[in-house]
Model the fold of this input.
Amino acid sequence: MSPSPPLLGRVRPEIPVGLALTLIALAFFWPLIAPSGAVDPEDMTLVGPGGELAAGALENSSALAYDSLWVDVDPAPVALARGAASRSLEMLARAERAAEESGDTGLSSRVLAVVRAYRHAAMAADSSARAASILDAVRPGVWRAVGNLTSGDVQAALGEWSRVAADVRRAREMVGEALLNLSSVDDSALLSPSHVEVLNESRGRLEALARELDVILALFSLVERNPEAAQRALAAAAAARDGGLSPEEALEILSSPGVQEFVTGVSSLSPGDAGRFGGQLAQLRALVEALSGAAQGGQPQGPGQGSGAGRGERPND
Done:
């Protein structure tokens, strides 16, 4: 049976209290704000609470997305983050319209710059929350697929992977959309240093998640390209690791179609980029490098010399 990560399916992040209180307050006062059909110059003041809501949604949704590939994520805070992002966009749109109607003034220009910055943050929050929902659903299958592969069972690994691959790719697209929006945020337009900190921390989480997903996708792309070669490489590597393969036999297997490509491809992947999958990837690299080492008379070859090369941990593990 494939190994499971610690705490898998056991931890549920709490609903962010501050964000919940903000949403409750907005739900209470929202009817007092001028109807959306009318333009009220005072709507420009909505840029403040709209920006605050966008920053809170981004902070929480990026954390949920980051966690979703490791632990259970409760759908309630995900929905809350998406709701906050949506309400933020509504408020920012109202502020933008009021600023545009007020004419070209210093205040309106400032408001429009702030609106643009927080709109990108709110859109990034929504994409992050959607990625969290997707990854939370496929997380067990991803871990089983990786576990089966490190155990040398290519058929079982591909069976699991085929059920989650499309959703993993879709989640990666969502993370990419979030990062693209964050790259468009003008830090100087944000209303407080704490929001700049939220932006940087959220970007860091999403970049780490993107690297992790990229490694997983690259790994299974190698396997899907030639499953037979991958299975033969892993079986031979296990034999080489246990001392049951001569240099001549190892060389013959490495010369088989697709085997050397698989071994080289796996060895080129970085456990550091794999984040919390780093241990499994390091184990897999050590295995395939045993085959290369056997072909060279016992000397490991390739970019992954030493099974822990590139080993890295994600923060807060």
Q: What stands out?
A: The chain is about 70% helix and 0% strand. Residues 1-15, 27-34, 298-317 have pLDDT under 50 and may be disordered. Residues 226-295 form one domain. The two ends are 24 Å apart (CA to CA).
